[in-house]
Amino acid sequence: MGIGTAILKPTKFCNADCLYCSAPPEVNGAPKWSIDEFKALFDKLHPYLTPHAVLLWHGGEPTLMGPDFFWKAWDYVQDIKPGIRFSMQSNILSYDSRRWRDLLAGPFAGSISTSFDPDEQYREYRGSTARYTQIFNKRLDAMLADGFRPKIIGTYTEHTIGLAMTMYDRALALGDSGFDIRINYRYPAGRDQGNGEMLLPRTYGKFLLEIYNRWIAETPNFVVTPLDEMFKKAVGLEAMRCPWTRHCGGHFLGIEPNFDVYNCSEFADLGEEEYSFGNIREMTVPQLLASRAARSAIRRRVDVPSDCKSCRHFNECEGGCMRDAVLYGKGLGGKFHYCQSWMMVFDRIKESIRTGEADGAIRMYGLDPEAVRTSSGLRAAA
Known about the structure:
Elements: E1 3-8, E2 17-18, H1 35-45, E3 49-57, H2 67-80, E4 85-89, H3 97-105, E5 112-115, E6 123-124, H4 129-145, E7 151-156, H5 164-173, E8 181-185, H6 201-218, E9 224-225, H7 227-234, E10 252-255, E11 260-262, H8 265-268, E12 278-279, H9 285-289, H10 292-298, H11 306-309, H12 314-317, H13 322-327, H14 339-355, H15 359-364, H16 369-376
Parallel strand pairs: 1-3, 1-10, 3-4, 4-5, 5-7, 7-8, 8-9
Antiparallel strand pairs: 2-6, 10-11, 11-12
């Protein structure tokens, strides 16, 4: 099948300083890829990319590279493999319509996600959380005015999870311009390494159910991840979607600023050498995928806990994220830490499909509710 997603980090540094992040604040002369370094990387990578693979620009903060870098990268990629798509994860603090609008509308086709935590506690810009919030909101307004709808990722704890509803309401109030949101749990990596469980699986699951019940009733013009991806898995629309796939090993690659390669950037953030595939400057892609770390990641396709294989939701969940299994001490073949959360949500999704509560959401994806119930075996009992 080849590599469908390559997560590229052209710089490790960031123009903000979020207190739990692994990216260090920007300094003068911080190393960044040159366009020639990217071209050399792409020359080695592209024969193993699927025809419509995604290059996800990540960091650090990728906008520190400047628009010209991405225009040149795009031109080079299109000359060699024109089906490749660009996407970006950015804090958007540097967004300026004059510099970035044409680039994001053209090569990136509007595919951009960002991060924001409404608690105003951990995301700092020049030493101030309030300044971060102020600048973020101003840049978001500019992007919305330019016709973009970035997905806003929030990272929540036991004490802040309720604020995710604030983001839902904020998106809902925008009507047709409502931005997509993602509700993530804060996890013990980066500068949070060693902090353990910061959001209980049951708390996370209960909150996702609150949002889900609103989402299927209101069917707004935006999606709520992870609920939308779990919903699409349940109605048969999705496959190979992180983290609901056990086949990511060998199909995803994360490439660090120093050209070290991992299964994804999440593994890189663990900072443990045993998960590195090697360095793409020194090795070919087949050599990287033949490394012990890569073979261990690929083995997740079959190496999942036995009770996962017998679970009523295994076809949809596929055992969850192996990085999270490692993160909470279970190993690559271990239990996904938020199994209970996923169990609660998939139970509710399937119930809502069976009872007809989710018919509006099913139609939103262009499907016939009765056909979905029949094909998925979720017809209501007579």
